[in-house]
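Note to self: user wants both folds in one dump. Writing first protein now.
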Amino acid sequence: MIPTTRPPTGLQWLVGGFVWYLVTISFAGAAERNPQIQKAIDRGVAFVRSRQGQNGAWVYPGISAGTDTGATALVGLTLLECGIPASDPQVQQAVQFVRKNAPSLAYTYGLSTSIWFLDRLGDEADVYLIQAMAIRLLAGQNEAGGWTYSCPVPGPIARPDEVRKLMNRNASAQAKKEGDKRQEDAKDKEKKRPELPPDLQEQLNRLAQPPAAPQPQGFANAGPFAAYDAATQSKGDNSNTQFASLGLWVARRYGLPVESALIRTEKRYRVTQMIDGGWTYIPGYRMGADHDRSPAMTCAGLIGLAVGHGAAVEAPKEKKIRVIDPDKDNNMQAGFRHLGDILQEYSQLRMIGGTNDSSFYFLWSMERVAEIYGLKTIGRRDWYAWGSSVLLNSQSEDGGWYGRYHPSGVDSCFALLFLTRANVAKDLSVTLRGKMRDPGTRTLKSGGVGPDALKKKGDKVAETSDKNRAGSPKLVDPKEKLPTNRDGDSPGEQENKDGSTARRMSDDLATASDAQQSELLIKYKEGKGPAYTQALATAIPRLKGENKSMARDALAERLTRMTADTLRIQLKDDDPEIRRAASLACAMKDDKSHVPDLIPLIDDSEPLVARAAHAALKSLTNQDFGPAKDASPKDRAKAIEAWKDWWTKKERK
């Protein structure tokens, strides 16, 4: 039997009336967040802070050693995502607790959340710990491509007092070796994988040896885990597996060869997907009809496919790993259709919570999926507006959220990470954004997008699609040869100095019907050439409501494809919409080299640019030196000096 203390596998919803909240949110986060949501976040942060113990930990009365470390890392990550600076005393206490316990950590959840937390913190002293914990995750992957609760320990991790000395030595050697290579364009030149310390490289080499016969991973006398037999452990569960796969994705930035492991995970999810497109907690393990389909595990499957796609994209060409277009990936499409069906089924939800309710975990899982794939809707439903309204209704008077995992504030962390739209894999998002549309809004062969796509064949709207409707603008063919150079394509901008093509495209977008605008935005986001960029920028002031927000998102996503040098040019563009989008693109690319470029923009003459630059700086640095909203020119100048001073000191280290 499966232990009752296993991770979440299903939803136990409290069905009632449904209240929609008007939500306005940008990629950069709190800069444009709905005041009601921000108030809920502030209350939630205060609640989570109140749960910290004297030893700096958030104690989780868990089921295995390492749960306190994992919970503390999750809370620390949550506080950072909510805008609490890394210098905050409670965050620093959490950091010290995680660092202290890392050498003995072998708990999959704890290893994964600790990697996320320390990576988000951004302290170079933690690189060694991240590398060491990632090796333990690699050791924990089974032949089925999954993970269970614990990972083997292939070798020791240096004591905390030795780690900083080791990292300082490595940092100095690395700085001499790298020289000025950091300034090279990462798009044009392949990044060299950082070298691992000798002791960790030796552990990695041992993992490469032929494995011994698979053995249960230490649960023979582990209380509720006793029910986990060897056969179950050999498969692993999809909850631990999604945590581990995201942990390895983050760890690859630190020199770990994780591509093969991530591709094995992707294969696991492809071969275990159910007919309806969903996934179960343990592949092939029959737990009863009420547990056969798990919303949270469907999200886990989609995350597994995402990291596999990212690994394939980054793999060297000589390995000849096939990269499937997400918009044509049958497994991804089926998974999102199933997830859309789940949202439709529970569309009348008003509140969640209760002793056995895993819904907070599901909402966070869905948020991660939507952010990674860059989807504003799932099953034609605005997942964020839907989920945030449920969370606001479910918040307790003390500011917390109470479900199955409420001890130490874990459920509250799930809620806060959803509300802040946290994303530990921003670089994976850059790889996937724009490559996939919500299957619920796919264009039918007979035409139509969104709600119009559901109309029967023969309906007047559905029949006309891309054809030139009477009284409607002609849709621009994205394959049409357009002048380009800023987007990295053929140099033809000189052929279109007067911008006539961009103006025509802008007019087409601004005067189109709502359904046509949605279709055009998809084309403009993906089109080749600067005309698409300029058309979006000039059309935005003429758009309204959701389409205006979607156009801004599309513009920012376009700019993430640009090189660092080109982005710097866009940050100085005359059009404020392009400056704003470029600022958000810097944050989406997670490129800290743009910090000095963004600092002057917090005093931009256009408030929307200044807010975006400020949000991008906070996202990239986990610092906040202002300015506050509606700050005076004098205060803005002080904020600029504070940012410059901090950056100068950081560069000197």
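First done. Writing the second protein, which came from a different request thread.
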Amino acid sequence: MPKNVIQLNDPFVHYGNVKMTQNFTPHHLSVYYPDSVDHLIKHNPYKVSIKVFLLHSKTKELNNIIAKLSATFSPIFLIRVDDPEKMIKGHEEISITSPHDFLKKLTGRKDEIGKVLLASFPKKQIEFVVDLPLTENHHFYNPENSFKASKSNFMTLNQILGNIWANDKPRGSATSAVQDSKVNLAKPPEDSSRFKILVDQLEKMNDLEIMVLKDRKVQFPNGRYEWLSPLILIVPFNFPSLGKVYGPGMNRKELKQLQKALNHEQALNYNSYVKTEETTVEELRYRAKFQNLKIQYLDSVGYLHASFTYSPVIRFPMLGNSIKTELSFFKPETINETKWLKSKELIDKFGQKLSSLIIPKGLEDKVLGLPRQVVAITDLPVEWLIYKQHNLCFTHDVTRIPETPYGGIMASYAVSTNVQFEIKEDVLSRTLVLLGSSDHDNEDEDFKKYFESIEQQSKTLGFKTFRCQSIQDVKDQISLHRPDFLIFDCHGGFNPETLSSHLDINGQSLTADAIARDKLVAPLVFLSACHTNPNYGYLNKLADAFFEVGCISITATYFPISILSGSNIYFRLLKNLSNAAKAPVHKNWLEFVSHVVRTSYYKDVVYATMRNVESSETNEKDKGKILRTLHKLNIRIGVNMLRADRRIEIMKEFEEELKNICPKDLIDTKTISEFVFYTHMGRGDLVRFESWNKEFERINGLKFDRVLNKI
């Protein structure tokens, strides 16, 4: 069904208008229970809209609920969610059983719908006409097939083209070559025919977006190329600890079946292969049920996340045991100094294995070749995937929405649909940095040294700091300041018994449970601490709690981070934010925070090299010349790193120029690439800078009121 009634006149024109204004147009989906209907009526979200209620026919006092809804909202329509093809008895005139039934009833209430449109656009009279000027060509352009992973893109393309709204004919010919959930042993696991269906959809969606942006002559303030809608990647992974969570409530037989199901995975052709002598028909049915429920949920929620920006979705094969060996190197309880020093090598090994398991050879550029942001729904550190010999978080801005706990994906979606948060020019005045360390003498002295620096910086930039001696201090400060941007600078830890992570505030553990219970949150959160998002088996993590209480974007860490590098990153983040909030350099928060973290590696190398030069026996004249040249190189590389299409090239130039500027023995070789230790989560791509929005509207001649909701 359409997201907006205006799509019924010409969905492609509506799509062009959305791309021209760069507005977000998500599906607005809310869940209410019978005892909260009065709350819905009182608060009345989305006041000017046509509402469709999905109701269960056996809900208590159903007729009373429908009467209340009809008296409050007009027009409304009903779907019987327990049997969608049947009408709700006694309410046939507003019950709908299919998209075509919905359109027929809409057309029959044209005058009433017209009033809704006029209320939506009071400054301009808009005639409501259901012409449906759609052609049969749309059916051929967007065929439906039985490959489940392609369903999200089929529905998004339909939102763009409207082909299934045109008439009562079939929605497109099914692709007979694709039969989901059937194993064809004649084809090797490397067969990429199914994946190519997704690539074909992706390319069509890219072409349509590029077409309308060029046709409308849309200009972007920063003049760069990352203007395509973000790519949604879904990498299903059978989390190794789910058995521990669900196991206590199961009998031994059920638990055994679940454990086997958690080892279940798919080959590159999206088929599963098992040795028949090692399993029973009953076990295969259990695995198939487990897999289908999980995949159906991920595809559906992926489609909802795609609805913000008409994004394409690539759902990769489900992974299990084949990646767990490489991932197990990053268990927090096994990380030692040797692993930390070899971290980049281990991370790249994991990334290469992940790439080989989910992307057929030769199709990498088809998926990742365009400079665009990535929203990944997965528990795996997809930022480490290798593309063009670099980690994906180097070539692209990547944000993740953890797959487990499963409700977190919906929580992130719900927050972003209900809160359109914008970064104001004075965001630093609403930024709070909480400093947590031991108050004992001779403990955390390195921490405290940097605390003094950040407190000094706050006087210049205008953000607030507080040295927390207890969790109560954390609560009090967040309650007092209600920050837009919240930073924790402290130790972080993990508990393998409870599969949880926590922040250390003067010896007290700030856990996910406490964050959720006390609603310790801000729209944007940055955790400068170790192990805040540990890999492999940890389910009760800090980020999950922040999302639960309304956070939109959080940056956390996979690995231990050094105090020096960690402090430098968020020092630079705050300093750069003072400029980024005022000048239209970055479109959204994800672009900004990714750039700051990504560039930390080469900056750390430059600063370490400068220290080597300063302490060397080089004469003062040559020292000055080298330091000045390094400073200029530092600035030039930073500017060029803003361009996704130049990053790989510019890093090669950086390495070569460094050799020409400095004697070989003074060039730093010990700095660890700590930028890959960080993970950005949530929908930071939906958080725009006010300065960017204003400049975008100015250069494109747009004049409209932007009404934003605040947390």
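Dump finished. Worth passing along: The two ends are 30 Å apart (CA to CA).
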